[in-house]
Amino acid sequence: MNKKDVIVEKDKKLITLLQDYGFSFSDVNKMLRNKDVKVNKKPTKENVMLCAGDVVTFFFSDEMLGKKFDKVFESENVVVIYKAAGIETEGEKGLESVLKAKAVHRLDRNTEGLMVFAKNARAEKVLLDAFKKKAVEKFYVAEVVGNFVADKTFDAFLLKDSVLSTVRVFQNKKEGSVPISTKIKTLKAGQESSVLQVQLLTGKTHQIRAHLAFLGHPIIGDGKYGKNENNKKFGANRQKLACFKLKFGFLDIKELAFVEFVKFPKWFCVT
What is the pTM of this model? Predict the structure, then answer.
């Protein structure tokens, strides 16, 4: 069993705190039933309200930990994993802490998919530079609402709203906006939903989610840029968006040079 001690930063329910660390609702309830959770050193089986400063100690199995990610590749320099949706990358509760390695690119908490982590300072420098210079191509798969047939690059402008922690997309330039380019290819089109391959030619915050919503085809399960009625219709509580392919060009880490990693999400289907 693994053990974790957490100092609560702000008031919240116990189950919410445990889910913040990537455990499923069923796993959390199992931990509570088995008295694997303590609040201020006292075991509890209840979903108690926590206060800032409380100390929560919880025990969890390797099997539960494995649900956070699948390891795809590892060397002395890097580790490539497939991150589950709902999992943080940075911070004490994130994958960096679990893997003891540094993420060299970002993936939204609620987006699943392939990620690369550097295990030493040299690898981190090389990989950060590679992603910055676009020596690594990232490909995503998304299931969206409605019939959407496309095989082209869509250009628009994206504007951040720091107050609401969202972005907005416009066809024409607005003050403070930045240009974005999103390459979209339909893999499967249907009346109810379509499956798309998406490539980011510019990598901006929430670009894929906001751009697809702007085009009238929000990602199924997206609670921020989609519509609740659509998500309920498809029974989706997680957004159907995944980084399924990382394609490396030349870089000074020989085990990654000109290598391609591919892993599709479980929900992916084009038959």
Answer: 0.77
